[in-house]
Structures are given as structure tokens and as C-alpha cells.
Amino acid sequence: MHSLLKLTLKYPLFIIAAVALTGGVLTAVLTIQTARSLEQEITKRGLALAKNFSVANAPLLLAGDKSKLQLAVHTLLTDQDVVDVTVVDHKKIVVAAKTTEDIGQPYADFRLEEKDLEPPDVMRLPPAVTDAQSGAERVFGFIAPMKFGDVPLGALILTLSRRSIEQTRRQAAQFAILIAVATAVLISLGALVFTRRELRILGDMQRVLDLQTKGQFNERLPSTRKDELGDLARAFNRMSDQVELFFHYLDQSIVDRLLHDPSLAKPGGRLQEVAVVFGDMRGYTAMSNRRTAQEVVRMINSYFYLFIEIVRTFQGTIDKTMGDAIMAVFERDRNDTGDDYKRRAVLATAYMKASTVVLGKFIARRLERNEDLHFEPCAFGFAMAAGTAIVGNMGSRHRMDYTVCGRVVNLASRLEKETSRGEVVIDNFTRMSSTDLLLLEVLPTVQPKGFTASEKVTPHRVIGLNDQEITNLRRTLKHVFSQEFFKDHIVPEDMDGDVADSWVHDAQLEVIEIIAGTSTAELFSLRAVQ
Predict the structure, then answer these.
(1) CA distances from 23 to 6, 181, 182 (A)
(2) Mean pLDDT across the chain
(3) Structure confidence at residue 25 (pLDDT)
């Protein structure tokens, strides 16, 4: 018993001593070497930054363009390693600086000699000078003359932080400790290696979780083990499957918005300027009577894939899908100016309409060649209205939707009923902000259901786009008719392998030909629906 007690103390003490000794030596060596190397790299970087700035912006100093010089200073300050930037003229007066209050004042952080304005190249300032200049924080200082030819105009004083060196020192110390632990593991006959291998699954779990927080659900944990850690991996994978399934029912933009601002997840709403789009398949009842349930769902999903990709392209949100209908919302973004959100929405609506024409022509061509894809061309009617709506979480704690409601939603829904021939209809409010983008046809004034006689609406039908937007439209359509689209939705189910890949390749080329060869009038044509 006494000998056993000694053994149980000897090995842990030996491991601790080995870790302490190895860690101390490695920490010292690695920290010194890494700090020295990094200091050399930062010095090179600071010299290059200062030189490039002085050369590039000397003409601004010569021209006295202080606003552009200040903009250049602010651009340089966006670098996370840059602490301070100051530009002085030949009289040592500050003309651009991090702190605008210093502009116009004599440079006083440290004594600036005449020779500092006329050296042949950039140089690093002595540490004593820069440390005194920056106060508590240790920094690198550089000074570069700004000249026009041989005429000195002034100088740039650039200060870089030493935080990266300190961080690297800490990281080197941590790395050295890990190396020391690994060495101790080897000395202790692999006992701790076994523990490290056993717990590797936790690192894999963290990596997979990081991917899932970014909306990527492709990876799973290895689950071949037969012990408790294997049970943990299988339980984690089941949870990941359920989370991935759940995310299929949410628009990623809504998820991103809620993660960015968790307060939006609370019940309640706010008034917000939005554009609302409704799209609905024409002739759905007759088509569904001709097709099996599986074929109907496959066809609807194919069109919805195109719509969703286009809405995402224009920063919109798919509010919901309702059988053969879809509703999208475009909120005023903080980067929007004026009516940008309406313009994004109306372009997305026009692009969705054009995508149905392109897909319909592709399917029709295949049918003419007696290639039965169990698919048929379908027409969709689209309507859009813009205005103020209530945006927020509707429902209860058991079931909640982030959605919109209000007059503008009702108007878009009612106008959609006016699209019996697969047209694109917009309200007059949208039309006024999009006349430079669209070719329009005025439709007879209507009184939508639920609206009073004084609230009659003059809808407009989109019959085309301007030349620039037609070019953008064709480019976007080539993008949304992707390999993924054809593989997931169009390729015959009995095809696989190289045959399917070849079919998809040919289909993409044919669609590109259709996109290029379809006229604007045909992209926005009416269609008789039986």
C-alpha cells in the first residue's frame, strides 16, 4: 500500500515537473523569437504604410486639399493596427489628423526637427519618443517626408500598436504550454494522449456548432464509437438534423435579423415602410387535376426556388408560401436612400415573372422533343404594392411569425387577383418611384375588395425594363438557373451519375440560349390560362 501511494504520487509529480520545465523553456524561447520576428514584420509594414501614404498623398498636400487628405487619414485609420496618423506641413502645422481638433495647430507631441521633414526615406522613430507620445500604450512610430520632387512639403507621423506583439506573446506562451503538456504526455507512456484523443469530439462539436451558427448544416460528428461519447455524437447529430429541418421553414434573412437584434423576437410590432409582393400560379386547379401530387409539388418547388433566389438577390424576405402562392416583403434598409426598397421590390417582381417565361420555354422545348420531364410550363401572376405596414411578431409564445400586416398587404393581395393572365401589376405609389426602370401600361382604375370608393387604385402593368435593367435581368437569370437548380428540381429522377451531369450541363446551355434569345416583350407577355 505504501509503495502504491508512492507510485500514485511519483507519476503526477513527474508530469507536473516536466510540464513546468518544458513549458517555461519553450515559453521563453518561443515568446522571444515570435516577438522579435513580429516586431521586424510590423516595422517593415509600418515603413511601407508610411512610405506609400506619403508618396500617394504628397500631391494633396501640395494642392492644399485638406478634405481629401483627411479622408486618406481616416482610411488609413481603419487598419486595426494603426493607432494614430498625423500629417504636418513644412511649417510643422497639423493639416490632417486622427483628432480634428489638432488640425491647424502646431505639432507638439514631440520635438519635430527640420531634418525630419527632409530625410531621403521613411524611418522608424526611437522607442523613447513614441512611448512618450502615446502615453500608456507602447507603440511603433514612423515618420515619412512628403515631398514634391526634391521640395519638402511636410511629413507623415504614423503610429502602430504593439498589441499584436503582446497577443502573440500570450499565444506563444499558451502554445508552449501545450507543447509541454504533449511532451509530458509522451513521457507518461501516452496516458494523457489517450485522454486527449477521447475528448477530441468536444473540439469537433465546437467547430460544427460554429458552422451551424452561420447557417451551414452539412457537417456531422463521427458517430461510430460504441461508448458514451459515441452516444453524445449521435444525440448531437440528431439535434443538428432537427435544427436543419427547422431552418428550412425560415427565411435566412429573418434569422440573421433576429440574431443581430434579439429584441425583435419579442412580441409586438412597429410601423415600417415596406413593399409587398404576391405571386400566384395561374391555372393551378386544372394543372393539379392532370398531375400526380408528387409532380405538382415538384413543379411548384421548382418555380419557388427561382423566386426565392431572386428575392434574396434583392435583399427581400420570403414571408410565406401558401400552396401555389408566395409572399415576399422588402423592408426599407438602413442603407436605402429614398425609394430604394420599392425599386428593389419591383425589379425582383419583374425578374420573377421573366424567370417563369424562361423556364416555361425550356420545358416546352423538351416536350417538343418528346422528352417527358413530368413537368409543364406554368404562368404566375404577380402584384406589388408599397406603403407603411405593421412589422413584427404575430402570434403567441407557442406559435409566432415575424410578418407584416396592414393596408399595403391587403392592396397587394387584391391587386394580385387582377393578374389572371400572368401579368405583373404594381400600384401607382410604386410606379412613381420606378418610372426610370420600367416600361408600363396603365390599367383601368379598380376598387379592390375592402377598399372604399375614395380609395380606388390605378394599377399599372409592367411590359418591360430599360436597357440597363434588361442586361442585369439576363445576367441574374443565368445565375439563378444554376446547376443546383437543375439537379434538385428538373433532372429526371431515373437519371444519375455521369448521365445526369451531362444532362444538367446541356440544360444550362439551352437555358442560357433561351435567356439571350427571348425578347423583352416576350419576357413580360400575357398568357391565356385555361
Answers:
(1) 25, 8, 10
(2) 80
(3) 72
Domain 29-164 and domain 267-523, same fold? Reply is no
The pairing of strands 379-396 and 424-426 is parallel
Q: Give a three-class secondary structure readout of 251-279.
A: CHHHHHHHHHCHHHHCCEEEEEEEEEEEE
CA distances to 302, 369, 483, 487, 512 from 505, rounded to whole Å, are: 18, 18, 8, 10, 11
Grid cell in block for residue 393: 411578431
CA pair distance 147, 142, nearest whole angstrom: 16
Predicted TM-score of the model (pTM) = 0.56
Residue type, 139: V
Positions in the chain whose pLDDT score sits under 70: 1-20, 22-24, 26-27, 30, 110-120, 128-137, 172-173, 176-177, 180-200, 202, 213-217, 241-269, 395-400, 527-530
Instruction: Report whether 19 contacts 180 (CB < 8 A).
Output: yes
CATH second-level architecture of 267-523? 2-Layer Sandwich (3.30)
- The CATH-assigned architecture of domain 29-164 is 2-Layer Sandwich (3.30)
| Closest-CA residue to 31 (of 170, 177, 182, 183) | 170
Burial label for 289, CB within 10 Å (0-12, 13-18, 19+), is exposed
Taking only the tens place, the pLDDT of each residue in 247-280 is 555 555 555 555 555 555 555 668 888 999 999 9
What is the dihedral sign for C-alpha 447, 449, 455, 459? negative
- Report domain extents, the chain: 29-164, 267-523
317 dihedral zone (left: phi>0; alpha: psi -120 to 50; beta): beta
Residues near 394 by Cβ (< 8 Å), separated by ≥ 6?
A: 269, 400, 401, 403, 405
Q: Classify residue 64 by burial, with Cβ atoms within 10 Å: 0-12, 13-18, 19+.
A: exposed
**How far is the CA of 520 from the CAs of 66, 232, 313, 314, 381, in angstroms?**
49, 57, 21, 20, 17
CB burial of residue 268 (10 Å; 0-12, 13-18, 19+): exposed
Residue 466's SS3 state is: coil
AA identity, residue 21:
L
